[in-house]
Write a structure and sequence with these properties.
Blueprint (H helix, E strand, L loop, with lengths): L2 H15 L10 E7 L4 E5 L12 H11 L5 E8 L9 H9 L6 E5 L5 E5 H4 L10
Parallel strand pairs: 3-4
Antiparallel strand pairs: 1-2, 1-3, 4-5
The chain binds tetrahydrodeoxyuridine.
Length: 132
């Protein structure tokens, strides 16, 4: 496993430990590495008003954006699942906002194995600034 992915995996696992998911008991961790080389991590944070929940991916990406970085080099997502955990549709859209053609998405399972895809593969017909 390459060094960058190992670092992302470590940070995403740490973030998952802080997941607040008392309603679903589904803990997720995510970590993004920006073009600036910094890693930002996040976990899902649920709410008694369920719809206010934020996914791990968006929590991590918003940290990155608030730090002034606008470009994701790679994002890794991990859950306690047998299957490789894919980002939800809303997160795909948010990932695409800050991605390039080279941005990679690593979807891990609980055994720390992963499947990797480009953002283009995950959200081929994305809504973007091109339509505005
Ligand atoms: N969740 C994420 O954090 N990321 C995903 O890509 C899928 C879903 C969270 C939201 C909610 O807290 C829990 O997982 C169950 O849907």
């Amino acid at each position: 496993m390459d060094y960058e992915i190992k670092r992302l995996l470590q940070k995403a696992k740490q973030a998952k430990e802080n997941s607040y998911a008392p309603y679903s008991n589904f803990n997720v961790g995510a970590a993004v590495i920006g073009k600036n080389g910094k890693i930002y991590s996040g976990s899902n944070v649920e709410n008694s008003s369920y719809g206010l929940t934020i996914c791990a991916e968006r929590a991590a990406i918003f940290k990155m954006v608030n730090d002034g970085e606008r470009e994701i080099s790679a994002i890794l997502i991990i859950g306690d699942t047998e299957k490789f955990l894919p980002p939800c549709g809303a997160c795909r859209q948010v990932i695409s906002e800050f991605s390039t053609n080279n941005t990679m998405v690593y979807m891990c399972n609980k055994h720390e194995k992963f499947k990797k895809m480009t953002v283009e593969e995950l959200i081929p017909l994305k809504f973007s600034i091109d339509f505005l």
